[in-house]
Write a structure and sequence with these properties.
Helix 3 links the parallel strand 3 and strand 4. Strands 1-2-3-4-5-6-7-8 form an eight-stranded parallel beta barrel. It has a two-stranded antiparallel sheet with strand order 9-10. The chain is 22% helix and 24% strand. By secondary structure, the chain is an alpha/beta fold. 38% of the residues are buried.
């Protein structure tokens, strides 16, 4: 199972987390977020291990800005967390890994994902909120049984030390990885290393 740590912005904290060798590290490029990277030093990301996929997280951003930040931070992947359509996603495919996030709720229509086939590399299923992630809330994971496509997905939304064992028991052929964020924080953007180490121990 792949591990993505998302919502990082403090250089010392980023370096400490990198030592755990997660598969992906996510950096929020969305100004309203309390985890917005602001003017994060380019050198901090440049020093990350090559095995870690540096992921820029965007919400309804312009293509021009996304391209600029991909070039600035040398992002390996982008996570699109807004209302981006399939063509917009496709425009980045092949340049970087494209992850398209969706907020899942009881009435979520998985059929809408069909048009993204061939246009994204992964989906990320988060809990539906107005804040585009980081809510600390889980959704009903049994809804994942309705997902029938061949595109692998990350699971996000309220993952914590209390439920990771349950997460490990999710039996879905496309379950690719977990996205750890708000339940592993001291404050928004500052991760708790002790909690993350325990999470890695559980998931390894």
């Amino acid at each position: 199972m792949k591990i993505k740590i998302c919502g990082l912005k403090h250089p010392d904290n980023i370096r400490s987390i990198a030592a755990l060798i997660p598969d992906y590290m996510g950096f929020i490029c969305y100004v309203p977020s309390p985890r917005f990277i602001s003017d994060l030093d380019i050198a901090t990301l440049a020093a990350l291990p090559k095995t870690v996929y540096k992921t820029g997280v965007f919400v309804n951003e312009t293509a021009e800005t996304i391209i600029k930040l991909i070039d600035t931070y040398n992002f390996d992947a982008i996570q699109l967390h807004g209302n981006e359509d399939p063509e917009f996603c496709k425009s980045f495919k092949g340049k970087v890994i494209v992850i398209k996030a969706f907020g899942v709720h009881q009435d979520f229509d998985f059929e809408q994902l069909n048009e993204f086939v061939g246009n994204v590399d992964y989906f990320l299923f988060d809990t539906k909120t107005d804040k585009h992630g980081g809510s600390g809330q889980i959704f009903d994971w049994s809804l994942l049984d309705k997902y029938q496509l061949d595109i692998p997905f990350f699971l996000s939304g309220g993952l914590s030390l209390e439920n990771l064992e349950t997460v490990k028991s999710i039996d879905h052929p496309q379950f690719y990885g977990v996205d750890l964020n708000s339940k592993f924080e001291i404050e928004p953007g500052l991760k708790d290393m002790d909690k993350l180490q325990k999470a890695f121990d559980i998931l390894s």
